[in-house]
Amino acid sequence: MPFRLRRLLQNRWLIGAICGYFLLPSVALGAWPAPRTIDEDRLADAGLRIIDAEHATLVTDFASSPEVEVLPQLIDLALPHWQRRFRVKDKKVEDWRLRVYLIKDEAKFRALGLWPNQSQEFLHGLSLGYEVWLRQQPTDYYQRHLLLHEATHSFMSTLLGSCGPGWYMEGMAELCGTHAWDPRSRELRLGVMPKSREAAPHWGRVALIRKAIDEGRALSIDAVMKIDNRVVLPSESYAWVWALSAFLDRHPAYRDRFRQAPGWVLSENFNRRFRAMYARDRTQLDQEWRLFIESLDYGHDLAREAIDFNPGQPPAAGGSQRLTIQSNRGWQSTGVAVTAGQPVRISAKGRYIIAHDPSGAPWPCEPNGVTLDYHAGRPLGELLATVDAGDGAFTDWRPIGLAADYTPPATGTLYLRVNDAPNALADNEGSLEVRVKAAKQNDQ
Ligand SMILES: [Zn+2]
After folding, report:
1. How many CB atoms lie within 10 A of CB 410?
2. Whole-angstrom distance, CA of residue 227 vs CA of residue 48
3. How remote is the CA of residue 402 from the centroid of ligand 1, in Å?
4. CATH code, domain with 54
5. For residue 129, how far is its CA from the centre of ligand 1 (angstroms)?
6. Span from the CA of 83 to the centroid of ligand 1 (angstroms)
7. How far is the CA of 310 from the centre of ligand 1 (A)?
8. What domain of life (predicted)?
9. Domains in the chain, number
10. What is the pLDDT of residues 96-138, one digit of tens each?
11. Of 180, 118, 173, 166, which is closest to residue 151 (Cα–Cα)?
């Protein structure tokens, strides 16, 4: 079939999911149908409840609980977030309503004609235009995640006319599904980086990425962009599309460009435009992606881990370069160019705070680090060095401490940082004074 038609069918009728997908060619080019009519009395007789909010109706056989009753209201609260993210004006959502079926006993929904016509099987959830089906999930958090995931598909498909290519479709649904909800203040935030495992029970995307990395299955950005949701995807694929979307959406150097992508979901050339948009700094993007996935943790602080790529100059002959390294940032350029195999002497001094104990008392630290705690097998706060030669340098470093001769493994720019987890930089304070000079032969 012609590519454009195939793309339209794909965009309109493919259901992603933690869900699966299918095609319905006969209605593919038409508007999404309104949700089916429901007979409230018949539903009540069968033990189903209907809970309305402004922009959503929940139909469920779940017992009443605050966690269930609030679900349709979450759609109301998510709507402004989706509007901002996907640039949809108020007028377009005035009459937008979603029907959500939250299912414990599938047979009841089938008997009442409330089952999706086009697909009899879906694993966890399904989005078909203005209707969403959700099976029961093990935690309230993950039930909300699944609702927001499927509802994001619905928002995009009904209001943008497409969800874009598979990786982007599922990536945006995963990104918007990853939320923080405070029932007391009724604040709902979407696109958050979960602070801890406990903050996102049963979500598990961080653990899946870590497992893949440990088993040597790191995916490049291009490999993630090949993830195709026209087949049933394993959970790990959802973890990868989430990771890429979260990385691009939060990284200060890449996020403004990423947030333009909703404008192209109807384009056949979405992936080509996407690659072109990042062509000028693609090497750095790939390096930072690699660093992100290899150091991924709950609460990963991309703003502080972001690398300011500043190419170095060779130090003046016989002279030395003095510079300051911040304790609360990731890798920082020294502005010094080094040559493979030609050692440099790096010395550092300074007193900074590297962490706080449970009572809130600061842990003072010097460039040799503290042995009260370790990260990546080295003392917390220890000064580390690497050379950026345009490859995977930032995951391959050497400890320096107070002073060391460092033999660059490659020709490039010298980068330094203190040793700390990517989710623990924010509470550091202070800086290190560093001196870099050519190492004398007898220093080695
Ligand atoms: Zn999906």
Report:
1. 16
2. 37
3. 50
4. 1.10.390
5. 13
6. 19
7. 39
8. Bacteria
9. 2
10. 999 999 999 999 999 999 999 766 578 899 999 999 999 999 9
11. 173
